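This part of the workshop introduces the protein records we will be handling. Getting from the letters to the tokens is the skill we practise here. The record below serves as our worked example for the rest of this section.

…
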Amino acid sequence: MFFCFILNSFFSNFLPLGGWGSCLFACTNLIVGKKASADGSTIVTYSSDDYGAYGYLFSYPHAKHKPGETRSLYHYESNNYLGEIPEVEETYNVVGLVNEHQLTIFETTWGGREELWEGDGIIDYGSLMTVTLQRAKNAREAIKVMADLVKTYGYQSEGESFTIADPNEIWIMDMIGKGKGVKGAVWVAVRIPDDCISGHANQSRIRHFAQTRKMDKKLGYFIVGDSVCYSSDVISFAREKGYFTGKDADFSFADAYNPLDFGGARFCEARVWSFFNKWGSMDMSQYLSYAKGEDFSNPFPLYVKPKQKLSVQDLKNMMRDHYEGTALEIQSDLGMGPYEMPYRPTPLTYEVDGVKYFNERPISTQQSSCIYVSQMRSWLPDHIGCCLWFGTDDANMVAMVPVYCGMKDVPVCFHPNTADTFNFSFKSSFWMCNWVANMVYQRYSVLFPELQKVRDGLELTFNNSQKDLEEKASTMSKEEAVKFLSEYTHRSSGMMMDSWMQLAQLIIVKYNDMAVKKVDENGKYVKTPGGVQVPVERPGYPERYRRAIVNEAGNRYRSK
């Protein structure tokens, strides 16, 4: 249970502008095509955001199956048993959300029209992803497998956007079921141009798309060149339900199945806007009113060309975004607290004197259970080419560890059986990272530099080791290389865990009781000759917050 969970109806009619039919808990996918990346790799990201979810790294081994074997399906959020489907002859190794052929599938949930939720069937969005990863070698095969699965076994989830990526292509697939009593789903998939960047964040982003009148009878859905696929009834079903009445050429999937409201713009589309604003080549200020939920008439494109080519590290850093330097920046009012924290407590909305207000919802959020950045490279063997950079908790507060797609044994710190959402363990990456993060949040401006130094130092070490490591692996047999890279992932995970334990101890010792112990130029604590700590530094509140106290309290605390 680590995929995003949404509450679509809780805030309906809560604000003007038509309600909040969007997510409270949410996920983010960012996308970089191979000609838009610095090294020619395809890069996609995923933040799995859900309060109460435990972040871990699951795996399914490569396997051969006998006739008559079945696979049990369990709902990814409730863990309820859904049913069984026949196994195929061979299933592929999966670790996290990548398989041994470098295929990656991520998602964000957008919900859409409630009457279409939980249609008849036994495939939920999580099962759809994992089963497809076990059965498909590339993005186009994955689209076919996903279409076949929901057609045959039905779809039992809300509306989803899937990122489907391999070393050469990246597609976004938007899908929603047909409601109770009806099996199947309607969907459209669009390929992101190789020289572009894209993303989605809990709002359907595919609007108008190229169409054709000739259906591929073998596949059972429409294909337009090498850039668009869509289900045979995606338009006719919308007409039947009364969601669309115009000409086919004017059909918009998002408008029909996930009509935009304030929350969909401000909490969801704004995150993609921030990515495009930082890295896109076009002026995104023209779309700011759209991102702010003020004017829905001018949505920004599904994809844009970048102003420069992006590295994997650029994507890691973008997943740490809090709208810095934009009109939506969080660290600009008293909501940041005394220590300039770029986070807000949930829920997203609150009320003062009968007036409704809200908090911004950036990419980086404290409720992330885990974070993925998948790097896929066509020029390397599959078992070396896909490196999944993985961390548990908020991307801003963790160092991402390299995990190679051929790996079969998950490190203890990422294993699902090491701990859970109710049981703490010092062996669990999720709990170690959350322990440190929750110390840092409350005194962010004071403590975050310590975390950032450790985080960035670890990632620099991993980044600098990657080339030599992979060159050495390339000289080995596949079996030897998989073992070699797996051992490296285990060592890297151990290094991260040791560093976080040391960081936790440093924070509690150096910053105990809201003071700061003095250190010398070598980082050693300053002591008297007898070994007793000299007086500590007591920084108190920052200047800005002191002034806020005086403005509110007047002369109450004025010294005589």
